[in-house]
Amino acid sequence: MLLLKLFYTFFKIGLFGFGGGYAMISMIQGEVVTRYNWLTMGQFTDIVAISQMTPGPIGINSATYVGYTSLVNAGYSHAMGVVGSATATFAVVLPSFILMLLISKFLLKFKNHPIVENIFLGLRPAVIGLIAAAALLLLNRENFGTSDTPWQFYISIFIFVTTFIGTYVYKINPILLICSAGVAGFLLF
Fold this sequence. Notes:
By secondary structure, the chain is mainly alpha-helical. It is built from eight helices and no strands. It has helices at 2-16, 21-35, 41-53, 58-73, 78-110, 114-137, 150-168, 174-188.
């Protein structure tokens, strides 16, 4: 039964997750943490961090890790966790695959049509809103300090601001920033 719920949940996320993986993060969090309680917020935050560091789209990586973790958390074996990973990954990719097959036939024919152009103009702000929602969901206690000492919060804010400036202003390679933040976290915490 959990595999069917997992499939349905990630199929729905894949179907309505416009804007790519980052836009899906808030939808995934809403389903697996808030609605079904398959994961804790701390586990979800760890999954998002790992999904960003591993190669591939973050939405698909998150689905893979959530599928595994949710089954293992429910008391199933690690082998069933792998089945959960495959189920969630397949489910999140399937709608895009089906839609791309259907849309690719018609998009080239109608891409310059005013109705199609207006639809895409309407989708752009929604995608930005979904990405902003994902960012705001990650601004939580698990990411900026889990203890009662304020120094951990200030160090977390410093790492966040430094990484943001390094990416946005100085265009530093994100992989270098991720590795640097990991080393800083290891040394300072």
